Amino acid sequence: MKEFMLLFVGADYEELGLSPEELQTRMGKWFAWGDKMDKQGILRGGDALYAHGKRVTGAQRIVSDGPFVESKELIGGYYKIAVENYEAAIEVAQDYPDFDLNGVVEIREVVNFDQQQ
């Protein structure tokens, strides 16, 4: 079994101005998706991320506020799942709740250094 990160790229909910009811409905979809993966035994973890943060850059380790990307391109969170291959990970991503908001799921395989030796 391989591990994959599902990185969620999309708009900041606060900037979209969702009503409390819309936000609650949307969060319900996220929790239902997480519960589904948990019951399937494939969910290894995940978290939502705040839109703001810090960046440490270069040899001088300059600290700045960030990320400085378009708000529609923010990484808003991630799930880590364990499935057989990319095709299975793509199938899991079909339930991503924010496709209707033009959100994106970036799927990346996690490097397992123990298997590379």
TrEMBL record:
Domain YCII-related: from-to ranges: 44-113
Organism domain of life: Bacteria
Gene3D superfamilies: Dimeric alpha+beta barrel
SUPFAM superfamilies on file: Dimeric alpha+beta barrel
Family statement: Belongs to the YciI family.
Name of the molecule in the record: YCII-related domain-containing protein
Source organism of this protein record: Croceimicrobium hydrocarbonivorans
Upper classification of the organism: Bacteria, Pseudomonadati, Bacteroidota, Flavobacteriia, Flavobacteriales
